[in-house]
Amino acid sequence: xxxxxxxxxxxxxxxxxxxxxxxxxxxxxxxxxxxxxxxxxxxxxxxxxxxxxxxxxxxxxxxxxxxxxxxxxxxxxxxxxxxxxxxxxxxxxxxxxxxxxxxxxxxxxxxxxxxxxxxxxxxxxxxxxxxxxxxxxxxxxxxxxxxxxxxxxxxxxxxxxxxxxxxxxxxxxxxxxxxxxxxxxxxxxxxxxxxxxxxxxxxxxxxxx
Length: 209
What we know:
Elements: H1 2-14, H2 18-30, H3 34-43, H4 47-50, H5 53-65, H6 69-81, H7 86-98, H8 102-114, H9 119-131, H10 136-147, H11 152-164, H12 168-180, H13 185-198, H14 201-207
Helix pairs in contact: 1-2, 2-5, 3-5, 3-6, 5-7, 6-7, 7-9, 8-9, 9-11, 10-11, 11-13, 12-13, 12-14
């Protein structure tokens, strides 16, 4: 793997094609190793990437695809570094979800609280919590759902995120929410869709009713 990464790093430094550089970043992330995450963090300091939002977003995506705890730490640093760029922060948040790391849940919880007044970043964070596919994310999503009882968009986003966690815990929460929303057919439809995404046995039985 190290030889492959050395080769890809060399190719990255030699090419001037932005598309080739993006492809190389994706190849690095696909190796799914800590060494790949460390290399991507190193490349994140490259001036070409810092001046090209397409390459920067590809690098964040590649970091997420390494599925390592190291990537979570690197992405948190990049999130803080891009304090004045909401557009790039959205890609970083999405990448944190893609790491599928338990550490990402805590990082995303902090990011959500940090963006209490930014609807767009809150939506991206809710989506990313679902992408983690961690049961620990369910508790965070429950709190977010309760805190946004009057915000129909964030409530719907949270319901969908429950399903994306693909956890039995989320299925139980969704079944309770289905009963609670007895007078809202639109919300109930979204809940049923999300129950299907959990792929849990209890959800399947519930959907057969």
